[in-house]
Amino acid sequence: MRVSFKNSSAAKPSVSSVIDLTSQDGFSPGSPGTEAGPRLVLRCRSVSDVVQAMAYAAETGARIVPRGGGHCFVNRCPADGIVVELSGLDRITVDDTGVATIGAGARLGAVYAALHGEGRTIPAGCGDTVGIAGLTLGGGIGILGRQYGLTCDRLVGAQVVLADRSVVECGEHRESELFWALRGAGGGQFGIVTELRFATVPEPSVCRIEGHWPAPQNLVPAWQDWAPDAPDGLTANLTVQTGRTTLFGASTLPPAETEELLRELTARAGVLYAIDLRLDVPYSMVKPTFSVLDPVGGSRRVRSEFFSRTLSDRTTSQLLDQLTGNRRLAFTAMGGAYHRVAEEATAFAHRGERFLLEQVGDPGDPWVDEAWRAAHAEGSGRVYPNFPDLALEDPARAYHADNYPRLAALKNRYDPLRVFDFPQAL
Ligand SMILES: Cc1cc2nc3c(=O)[nH]c(=O)nc-3n(C[C@H](O)[C@H](O)[C@H](O)COP(=O)(O)OP(=O)(O)OC[C@H]3O[C@@H](n4cnc5c(N)ncnc54)[C@H](O)[C@@H]3O)c2cc1C
């Protein structure tokens, strides 16, 4: 089936139109988008839809951008571009060996729920509506990650429509270089992934951790010295904003050991033990409860960096002194299983880092840049590919470190004509 607009009210669309490729007559215009949106959204429900969408883009010379959960921090589709929308490819199955096959349009909430039904799970992120594809292709950090690694570390195979519109399967022994690149280089670089296969783990019952204090006091330095070195089974992240410092996470360790470790943190920080532990919660049920801890609504600007050492007292004070209004610092613990994969074993190059720090603020707030610069003086210069930052001076180095030359060579091999391109692409 060819994509054609001649019988459709969407003919020559100038603003975003949604064309459903699998509707009865081949296309059915959906709701119009905004002036700023892409020219066209092609909604796909099968691999052949994706191939057709790419053929249409090639015919028209339009830039094409895949969309999974649509949560990318930056808009990678130009106003005259075409979005290949994959939410219809959302099938999730688990075989007898525990391998889950997940359509690239599935979102995390649905993934956790489906795997829970089989008593299985994968280490992945918190946002229910985040897409499994975008998350996995850039790495995938979450509260089981210190125990089981990045989401991409559980990937065992994928189906991809390449720039030349061929459909390939990749894995450790097939298209192994492509498989290497898909694990952490970031989305939208090599092709459109249509299906992902993961080696799942048994879903644990966890102890949910939530603590609140009115001021950060010494929690920020104490957390940095403690959280990345905690046993793998415990992940506790820290957010700091005006009048509220929050510790949240989960532990697969026995409750007494979990409490002992948390008491070690509060003792180091010299704060009261104000931590609530909820025992025996299925991992899949814990994740959505953390979204209510994020009180800053609306659009936000995020800058971030990995750190391999504790921030100096001077920098910590500088960051905390300016924390007013909607400004927020978010510390995510690394270490554990994240470190047990060599930096060159997958495209995700940031294996030796102790924590990730995000500066979050209102879009026009100059503090985001100021705070980022202050912290950057002590940072590793490495940035998580899933937290793209258009202000970076050397994005290739920041996102990919020493894996960049190999990734650049693979980009030339798999997409020599740069069918997939965006600012800061390989
Ligand atoms: C509310 C929220 C919570 C988050 N929580 C976490 C978290 O806990 N842990 C974490 O690690 N990250 C987290 N993130 C960051 C998240 O990992 C990235 O934003 C990720 O890129 C989102 O993927 P997506 O599919 O939703 O977005 P999209 O915008 O659809 O995709 C992101 C990128 O991947 C490309 N892409 C999407 N689908 C495909 C495909 N099928 N084939 C090839 N390329 C594709 C897109 O073109 C784009 O470049 C969060 C983000 C938000 C907004």
UniProtKB/TrEMBL annotation:
Query: What InterPro entries does its record include?
Result: BBE, FAD-bd_PCMH, FAD-bd_PCMH-like_sf, FAD-bd_PCMH_sub1, FAD-bd_PCMH_sub2, FAD-linked_Oxidoreductase, Oxid_FAD_bind_N, Oxy_OxRdtase_FAD_BS
Name the Pfam families for this protein. Answer: BBE, FAD_binding_4
**In which domain of life is the source organism classified?**
Bacteria
- One GO molecular-function entry: oxidoreductase activity
List cofactor names only: FAD
Q: Has UniProt tagged this entry with the keyword DNA-binding?
A: no
* Assigned keywords, A-Z: FAD, Flavoprotein, Oxidoreductase
Listed PROSITE patterns:
FAD_PCMH (PS51387), OX2_COVAL_FAD (PS00862)
UniProt domain FAD-binding PCMH-type: residue ranges: 34-203
Family of the protein in this entry:
Belongs to the oxygen-dependent FAD-linked oxidoreductase family.
Protein name (Swiss-Prot/TrEMBL): Berberine-like enzyme
